Amino acid sequence: MESVGIVLQRGENNSIYALLKPNIDIISGQLFLIEDEGKKTVARLDDYFYINEFFDEKTPFSRTLLNDKIDVELLNMNTVIKAELSIVKRYNHSTIPKPGSIVKFLPEIADEKDLLSFYQLSSSQGYIKYGRLAGSKIPLLLDLNAITMHVGIFGETGSGKSYNMRYLITLLSNIEIDGKVTSIPLIIFDANGDYSDFTSFNIDLVSKGRGWIKKYVMRDPLSDYEIKLSIDLSLFTAKDLADFIISLKYGDIAPNSLQANILEQVLSQHDPQEYNWLLSTREGIESLKIELQELKNTGFSPSSIRAVVSSLEIFLNKVRKYNFVSSSSSFNEQTLDVIWNTKGLAIIDFSSDGAPGVDISTKQLIVSYVSRLVLDYLTKAKYSGKQKLIGVVIEEAQNYIPSNDYPVNARITKEVLVTLATQGRKFGASLFLVSQRPAFVDKYVLSMLNTFFFHRIYHEDVKYVMSATGGLPEHLAKSLPSLETGYVIVSGLMSALKSPALVKIPWDDRIGSYTGYVMSIENILVS
C-alpha cells in the first residue's frame, strides 16, 4: 500500500503523532497500518487537524477573516494533517513505532488467509463478518462465543440504529458452520413494527438457517404467520402480581405498600395455577372480593379493601380489552422448544398494528412473562446437561429497564431483566438492548453489557456512556454526537479487534433504510 504519512513523535502511553498527506479522505476512528523496520502496527485515528507554514497551530486565522486580496494558494502552502493515533494491535512485537515510521491505509484483503492474518486468528469458525472497517474493505469479525455476554445498540432517531439491528439479525440468521447454514434462535420485542416484514415480504433474509418464523400479535391474526399472543399468569409470584395490579391504580408504589400486601396475602393462599381464573374472569374477581371482605375482620380498613378491589377491576378490564391471559398460553415452554429446535425467530409485535391501543404496563407484563419463561427454560436445560441458547432483543429498552432519571414504573420487568443480565449468561441467554437514550437505561444493567454498537447519540448521553461502558476512548466518545448516519462504533468482547472500531454498515434496500423514507415536503404539498 502507498504511504500516506509518517510518524512524527511518540505520545503518552500507546499514542503517537503522525503527519499525513492533506489530500486523503479520513475520519476519526479510522484505522491505519504503521510499518517500522519490518514491524507492523495497527493504530486508530483519534483526532486530527490541518496545519501549514502560514495557517498553523500558533496562528489560528480563519479564511473568512482574511482579506480577499490575499492569495488563497498561500493557505495551501506545505499543508499537512497532524494526527493523533492510538495503537490497537501489534503483530509479533511490543514496541511503539519510531519517528519516521511509514503510515499506510489498511491493506487489501485478498482471501480468507489474509483476513485471519490481519486479526491474528487461526480459524474464522465461530465468527461472522460485520460491515467494513472505516476507510477499508476489511470486515469486522464478531465472535459469536461472546454473544451471551449481552449487547447494547444505542443511537438517536435517524442514526441507523434499527437498520443496524435488522442487519445483525440477518447475519445471525445465516451462520455457516461446517458447510451448513444455521441461526441464533431469537425472540424480538418489536416496538414499532421494524421487523414485521421478516415473517413475510423479506423472509428470505432470515429464513435460510431457520425452520420456523412467526409473529405474535395482540389482535386477531390476519395470516398464517401471525399468532394471537396470550400469557400464563401462573409463572408469576403472588407478590409480583400484587405489586403490578396495585400499581395500575397508584403508579410507582413503594415496596410493601399496604394494598399490595393485602392482595399478596389473598393470592398466596391459592395455587399459582388458579391465577389465570382468579384474575382474568368475572367469577374469579368476585371470589377474590369475598376473600377480601373477610379480611375486614382481621383489622384491615374498608378503604384499603376498596382500593384493592378497584385495582383488581382495572386489571380485569385490561385483560378483557386485550384478551391476553390464558392457562393454555400461546407462548409457552413448548414454544421455546420449537424456537430452539428450529433455530426459529419469534417477533412479538408491540407496534400500533400488532398491538393497537395496548398500553406500556401491559407490554411490561408480557416482557416480564417471556423473560421469566426464557430464564426458567434455559436454566432447566443447563442443569439437565443440554445447554441451549436464545437471544432476546428488546427495542425501547428504557421502558423495561429504566434508570432513575426515566419516569416509568417498570418493577415487573426490571427485576427479572436484571437477573437475566447477571445470571442468564451462564445458561445461554443473550440480551440485545436497543434504545435511543442510553442514559435512560439502568446503569447497572448497562454495565452488564459487554459489546456495544454506538450510533450517533445525544450530547447529554456522552458522559453516561463513558462512565457506564468503561474503556471507550474519550476522543471516540466525543465524536458520537456528530457521527455520520450509517457509521457505528463497535466496542467490546464480540469484536475480534479487541479495541473500539469505527465501522461502515453496508447498504441493502431489503434490510431497510437508515432513517426511514419520508416523501419530500414539496411533493406532499402539491399532491
Q: What is the mean predicted local confidence, pLDDT? A: 89
Terminal Cα separation, in Å?
53 Å
Q: Nearest-angstrom radius of gyration?
A: 28 Å
**Main sheet: strand order:** 8-21-20-19-10-18-17-13-16-14-15
What report would you give on this structure?
The protein is of the alpha/beta class and 527 residues long. The chain contains 14 helices and 21 strands. It has helices at 112-119, 161-172, 238-250, 258-267, 275-280, 282-294, 302-322, 333-341, 360-383, 411-427, 443-448, 462-469, 474-479, 521-526, and strands spanning 3-10, 15-20, 31-36, 39-51, 80-91, 102-105, 127-130, 132-133, 140-143, 151-154, 175-177, 180-182, 186-190, 213-217, 226-228, 345-349, 390-395, 429-435, 451-454, 487-492, 501-504. It has an eleven-stranded mixed β-sheet with strand order 8-21-20-19-10-18-17-13-16-14-15. Strands 1-2-5-4-3-6 form a six-stranded antiparallel barrel. It has a two-stranded antiparallel sheet with strand order 7-9.
Question: Which features characterize this protein?
Answer:
single chain; 527 residues; alpha/beta; 6-stranded antiparallel beta barrel; 14 helices; 21 strands; 22% strand; elongated
In summary, what is this structure?
The protein is an alpha/beta fold.
Helices, strands, pairings?
Blueprint: E1 3-10, E2 15-20, E3 31-36, E4 39-51, E5 80-91, E6 102-105, H1 112-119, E7 127-130, E8 132-133, E9 140-143, E10 151-154, H2 161-172, E11 175-177, E12 180-182, E13 186-190, E14 213-217, E15 226-228, H3 238-250, H4 258-267, H5 275-280, H6 282-294, H7 302-322, H8 333-341, E16 345-349, H9 360-383, E17 390-395, H10 411-427, E18 429-435, H11 443-448, E19 451-454, H12 462-469, H13 474-479, E20 487-492, E21 501-504, H14 521-526
Parallel strand pairs: 10-18, 10-19, 13-16, 13-17, 14-15, 14-16, 17-18
Antiparallel strand pairs: 1-2, 1-6, 2-5, 3-4, 3-6, 4-5, 7-9, 8-21, 11-12, 19-20, 20-21
